[in-house]
Amino acid sequence: MKYMSHFVYILKCADDTLYTGYTTDIERRVIEHNEDIKGAKYTKARRPVKLVYYESFDSRSDATKREAEIKRLTRKGKLELIK
To answer: Does 1 map to a domain?
Structure first.
């Protein structure tokens, strides 16, 4: 069985907002957010974006649960997490 990592990440957008997402390939996903048509609608209008934080998980379930937790944080909470 192939081992796959799951990532939750935070991007800082050009307008200084933060975007939180999930992926199995963090490098590809950041490129998509910056260049590709597959980037999220939110980030398309806020390019360029920069990866400022990520966490790695063994399971998709754990990663998506953590993504939801991070999305519930206030901006201040996310900035503290990034530090």
So the answer is: no
Percent of the chain scoring above 90 in pLDDT: 88
Helices (H), 1-83: 26-35, 41-44, 60-72, 75-82
Instruction: Tell me the two tokens of residue 18.
Output: 């933060």
Name the pTM for this structure.
Answer: 0.93
CA-CA-CA-CA torsion sign (77, 74, 40, 55):
positive
Handedness of CA 2, 27, 39, 51 (dihedral sign): positive
How far is it, in rounded angstroms, from Cα 57 to Cα 68?
Answer: 14
Report the CATH number that the domain containing residue 34 is assigned in CATH: 3.40.1440.10
**Edge-to-edge, what's the strand order for the sheet holding 50-57?**
18-23, 6-12, 50-57
Count of other CB atoms within 10 angstroms of residue 73: 15
